[in-house]
Amino acid sequence: MSQVIYFDCFSGISGDMTLGALLGLGLSLEDLRAELAKLQITDWQIASRQEVRGYIAGTRALVTAPEQEQHRHLSDVRAIIEASTLSERVKRQSLHVFTMLAEAEGKVHGYPAEEVHFHEVGALDAIVDIVGVVVGLELLGVERVFASPLPLGAGWTRAAHGWLPLPAPAVLNLLSAAGAPVTPDMTPAELVTPTGAALLAALAEFRRPSLRLSRVGYGLGKRELERPNVLRCWLGELLDEPQSHIHTHHHEHTHKL
């Protein structure tokens, strides 16, 4: 039976929350560091610690990387990933996430994906987040990814270009490209980040599967919110499902990875 993961996004999703949840499922931090070292980029660090958000204990992934002077483009990120000794599957899936992210950001600003300046999403920490999650899924033996509907929050966020309405425009572009289900939620915070949205848009099927549950992991966000700022991940073996469920448009999309 194939190993699958279900992202239970009751408080949204971000890159570091996803890494934290995978570490909470038992992903080895040492193994993760060893794989990320194959990227041939320096100055980043990753650590983890146990914390609590709203009475729920979990794992906080701490990715640190200096802000760099040069702004990367999609071609720069592609060159870094392709020059690495990561597995072909990890390279392909990571590039798929970054390409969707660049297309969504470009659509917001009105220019092609290749011209997007990755000051926000191609910075070192985003490369570590995205490649780290794809690597983590492979190390955990995950063959398929599923996700819940997403609460998007409301209000405003400060971005490199100035103030943007929440949910961020790039997040809506990513989720509309994936046909993702969203729930009405007016929490005044950015619950789903562009990185989190790109990971799910590129890798996930948006439904809760039948599975034999083996482990649960909790990844914590930076802030304390009125609700627990936590991403819950369920890991298990996929159980047989009716064929009618399996042949969805998005399932076909995910298997082009």
Structural features, described:
The longest helix is centred in the middle third of the chain and has 22 residues, at 88-109. This protein has a five-stranded mixed β-sheet. The protein has helices spanning 15-24, 29-36, 74-82, 88-109, 124-139, 169-178, 194-203, 243-246, 249-254, and strands spanning 3-8, 45-53, 56-64, 144-147, 150-151, 155-159, 162-166, 182-183, 204-205, 211-220, 230-238. The protein has one domain (3-254). With 257 residues, it is α/β, with parallel strands linked by helices. Residues 244-257 have low confidence and may be disordered. 44% of the residues are buried.
Briefly summarize what is shown:
The chain has one domain (3-254). It has helices at residues 15-24, 29-36, 74-82, 88-109, 124-139, 169-178, 194-203, 243-246, 249-254, and strands spanning 3-8, 45-53, 56-64, 144-147, 150-151, 155-159, 162-166, 182-183, 204-205, 211-220, 230-238. With 257 residues, the chain is α/β, with parallel strands linked by helices.
